[in-house]
Every structure is written in C-alpha cells, then in structure tokens.
Amino acid sequence: MRIQTPLREQALKTCRRLLSEINRDPATPTCGCFDRRYWAWKLVDFPEATFQRNLAALAWLLDQPEASDERAFLTLTIQSGLLYTASIQHRNGSFDQAYPYEASYGATAFLLPDLLDAYQAIKESCADVHQMTIEAMLFRASAFLNKHAELHGTISNHLAGAALALCKAGVFFGRPEFTRKSGEILDFILSKQSSEGWYIEYGGADPGYQTLCMYYLAQLYQLVEDEKEKDKLRASLKASLEFLQYFVHPDGTFGGEYGSRRTEVYYPGGIALLSAEFPAAAAMSARMRTSIEQGSTVTLADVDMGNTAPLLNNTIKALAFEQPKDLPLLPCQQESIEKDFPAAGILLRGTPRYYCLIGVSTGGITKIYDKKKARLVLDDCGLLGVTSRGAGISTQMAHEDQGFQAQANQVELWGGFYPIKSSVPTPASFLLLRLMNLTVMRVGFLNELVKKLLVGLLISGGGRLPLKRTRVLEFQADRVRIRDRIEKTGPIDLKQLTGGGKFCSIHMASARYFEPAHFTVQQFEELDVDELNRSGILEIKKEVRF
Q1: Can you tell me the distance from the alpha carbon of 472 to that of 464, in angstroms, rounded to the nearest whole number?
Q2: Distances (CA, A) of 228 to 271, 496, 522
Q3: Tally of CB atoms within 10 A around 34
Q4: Is residue 301 in some structural domain?
Q5: DSSP helix/strand/coil, 473
Q6: Which of residues 267, 288, 312 is at a domain's end?
Q7: Per the domain annotation, does 285 fall within a domain?
Q8: Predicted TM-score of the model (pTM)
Q9: C-alpha 225 chain-centroid distance
Q10: pLDDT of residue 463
Q11: Do the domain assignments include residue 194?
C-alpha cells in the first residue's frame, strides 16, 4: 500500500483534471485530443500537440492502486490519445505547437519520450492495427528529430528533450542512428555549458528552465551506458547543481526575473532523480518538496495546460525521492554568502539577516529576503516608464552595454533604458500570421526565419534609449542601502517613471505564474519625472533594514 503524501495527492488530483481536458467521446473526430479550447470551446483553429504529453501521466495513473478498477477505461483513453496524436502529425514526423504547419522541433522533442512511455504502458492491450499506427507515428517523430535541428535559438531544455527522446527511440526501435544522434545532441549541450554551471536558454542563464533541462538530462544519465560519456555527463550535472542551489530562496520560492527567461517554476523531477548521488540535489529536493507541498512556490494548482504536462510528469518523478538523514546547507541557509556569476550576470550577497540576489544582466533586478522571517521584502524588478510619446520603456532588458563592478560589501552596476516589446494578437495581425502559416511559412527555411524574427520581436532586447541608470548597493550586517542615479544622455522626455515593483519586460509564457510571495510585494514607487525632464538627472535613495 502506497503512503499518501501531499505531493502524491497533487499528482492524483491533476490526473483527474486531465480526464476532463481530453476528449473521451468516440462519436467525435477529435476523440483523444487534450486541447479543450479546440475540441470543446472551438476558440482556436488547430490543436496544440504538446498537450498530448499528458498521456504519460495517465499511464502512471494506470498503475496506481486508486485506479485498479479503472484500468480498462484508462487504457482505452490512452489509446485514443495516441491515435489522435498520430492523426495530427505531419508527414515529416513533426508536430505543431504555436501555429499550423509550424513543424516544431521543440514540440516533437517534448512529445516523443512521453508518447513512448504511454504506448509501452498499454501496448499489449492494443489491437495490431492500432499498434502499427502508433508505432509508425513514433518512428516518424524519431526520424524527424534525427534529421532536423532547432535553428531559431539555443534552448537547452528543448535540446535535452530531443536527446532523451532519441535515446529512448534508439532502444525501442533498435536503431543505432537514433542513439548516435542523441549522443551528438548531448555533446552539443555540454559543450555550450558555461564554466559557471548553467545551460544556455536564449543566450543566458535561466534557473527555472534549467531545472526542466535537468529533468531530461537526469533521465539520460540513467540510460547512458558508455562509462566515458556517463562520467562527462556526471561532471556536467554536478556543475549544474552547484549553480542551481543558489536560486532556492529563503521563502521556498525559486528563480525569477533575474533569469534570461524570467521563470519562477521549479521542475522537481530531474533533481530528485539525482538526489541519491549528489548532496546538492538532495538538499534542493528536500527544501523544494516542502515548499511544493505547502504551496509556497508555483505548483500544479497554479499552472495552465501549457505547463501541466511537464510539471506533472516532474512531480511524478519526484515522488520517488527519499530524504537522506544528513543534508548540506543550501546557500540561502548559510550564515553569510558572497557569490558572483559574472557570465550569467547574477550576484548574491547574504548575512545572517538577509539573502540578496542581483540580476545585473537584466538591468539591476534586486530581490532581498528576510532570512529569519523567510519572507520576500524587496522585489525590485527595475524601472518602468512611459515616454512623452506613449512608448513603454524599462531597464529590465539583457543588453551588451550592461556592466558592473562587484566587491564584498558593495556592488555598482550600470545600464540603459530599452523599449518594452509587448504585443498581443489583433484580428489583423492574426489574419496575416495565418496567411503566412498557410503559404510561405510552409517552406522550412522561411518558417525558421520567421521564428527568429519573432524571437527578436518578443524576447531579445532592442536599441538603447538616451537614458542611463547607475545603481550602487551597499551591504551591511543588518541593512542594504540602494542609490540610483538616472540621467538623460540625449533628447527624451518621460510622462511616467516608476520603480521598486514586480514586472516582466519580455514575452515569456512560462513566467508570471502566481505564488504566495506575490502577496507581500510592495507597490511601485512613482518617481519625479518633472525633475528628470527639467534637470536631466534624478537621484533616488532607499534602505532596507532588518
């Protein structure tokens, strides 16, 4: 009999929700589809394929005692999901996530390992004709990943998913070319890993998404048989864990706007799998499991369908974690800390009273936690303004002209203001996109070109504006002093300028999930734009005491 834990209860409740998300009606052509927006509400014009990853969680549920009387029902549901997935696959083996005819490498990479797991759980119950259909779909997806690459950016968690998918496919189909390609992708990920331990996510370090990358790499670590390759991966995982441990916060949250993709989601599965071998992984898993069970961080109750599958599958993997007796202290639990990651652009300072993270590569984001109260007391994500012409601007942007000088008791950083690239679809832009989806974007290289343009439009930084911000932070035992100087370097006038609050300046669907720490975040402070417009200089001082 399995012991019921809060974490397991979260997984079981989410699996029940999945049974409402998937279309179980055999009278409809979309039976097996997980995109309820498409099959039920009919509000979107294509089904998002990545939602089909949820079949792996239903396959886990199939083996649980709570579902012992529903095995036939679940088996049929999983089979219908696999058959529907085959029906929406492109002839080249790819799947769509963001738009029709996308032929997404990332979507295919994420789908394949979960579809393989789901199929193997019910294979013996499938009729021969269904086995042929499903296995043909799985093989085409494997062949697509073997032949193609993701070109619009280096996104390590996507690549790690592809490496795991091809490793599993190589075993399942007995195809050594899939296994070789998996090894090549893994070698590429490791070759790009920073000496500081982080994997590249759109040109920078993002602790949140790195935990998802670890989910795939940890499973690969269990599968790799070549000792030389295993040793290389072991060293990489150790370095990654040494980096990630710094981003467990005193209040149990993880990650944030100081990362390249601004995510605050902790994916627990991969780190839990590594806990028996790596002390840092055990310490992180123990602290974050408590946080997840208490709801202090982003949980399955907080995410939408876009992140339900990866977070649920991670949660299921994390159920196997057994906490050892002796755990090392995480950085946020230590008396004092001084750690700089210059390449990532993240600095950390701490005393017995506080824990401070500074995102110098994202415009000086400053987060300060009261260690005794385990509470966030300052969540300063930068300066946010509006020009006299109505354009949104912010300091929160990765840009090559950001710089800093760091000492033990003082950090000085500088950078500029940049346009905020924020947009939502309009009927006109959506019509244009669909016309392109149905015509020119069906050509492979043009499709990738448009993806690169979209990344530049929604994620990458724009040109610098004629405004400069310098920030100096002074660290004392029981307080942090912050001095900001804003100065005009050219002709520009502002209508509004605020600071000291929480916001995200780029498009990132996996950012902005709610967690209870947001209740404590202070309101934005209105700054004196009249003084800045008149004199060209504005100075601001604040002090956080403990």
Answers
A1: 21
A2: 22, 58, 51
A3: 27
A4: no
A5: strand
A6: 267
A7: no
A8: 0.95
A9: 29
A10: 80
A11: yes
